[in-house]
Amino acid sequence: MMKIKxxxxxxxxxxxxxxxxxxxxxxxxxxxxxxxxxxxxxxxNRGDTVSTxxxxxxxxxxxxxxxxxxxxxxxxxxxxxxxxSTPITIQPNSSTTVTIQGDIPKDLDAVxxxxxxxxxxxxxxxxxxxxxxxxxxxxxxITMQAExxxxxxxxxLRTETSSKSMDDGDTFKNVRPGDExxxxxxxxxxxxxxxxxxxxxxxISVESENSDVDVDEEDDEIDSLGADEEDTVSGSITVEEEAxxxxxxxxxxxxxxxxxxxxxxxxxxxLDVNRLTHDLKIRKIAVSP
Length: 289
Hints:
CATH class of the largest domain: Mainly Beta
Number of strands: 19
Strand content: over 45%
Radius of gyration: 30 Å
Order of helices and strands: HHEEEEEEEEEEEEEEEEEEE
CATH topology of the largest domain: Immunoglobulin-like
Strand order of the largest sheet: 2-9-8-4-6
CATH architecture of the largest domain: Sandwich
Helix content: under 10%
């Protein structure tokens, strides 16, 4: 009794409240799990209605989980709906799948800020319900993906004696200091003629991370690229005489279509610079009498 008195009634109430809140947090955090639904794909067309499923799991070993509501924060243009009706009762240590459906808008980006094909984060969903007499909820991320319609169809490097079409990850071997290349990049709009979506401007960048390899871009943009059309840009790459290490060349294209969706592609390839042992550099000549 002396110990209880020394704590004081106020402190006992605080400790009790802390224990109750900790128990409720634990129940909410660990008794319900929800997977992230991914709508669409890299081949999905804008304007299509797409669907997928996600899983809700009741990890509580003793109590039923009753789902009373599933909501979404996604913009109305995605028209997100859940085709599974509530309430849903999930037994202890069991799970259920729920179907989510949405529309791919015309302005959904195909690539991220690094011009890599990617699903876009369009909002969240929240699953709410009751478990063991307490309210619980869990949030998950909704993503959506559509096709990328601006691509590098071919990137060709040429020297006086050889020619090679370069893809991402390729290596042009046996490059010597002093070598000069010309390049041609074929850019294609993969929208079909029936879709009739054009790119007002397509931007092209060819860069080297090696200061001893110079890139001269004759063209750095295409003014307009219509549906199902191709265009070619060109330039040159020079390996300076001082070059003594390999070089990574990065080719990037990107453009926004007439509906506001960002498309593009990035590829990287390597120039395998080979300096032979007898390639000597004469820095200075001194003549003695």
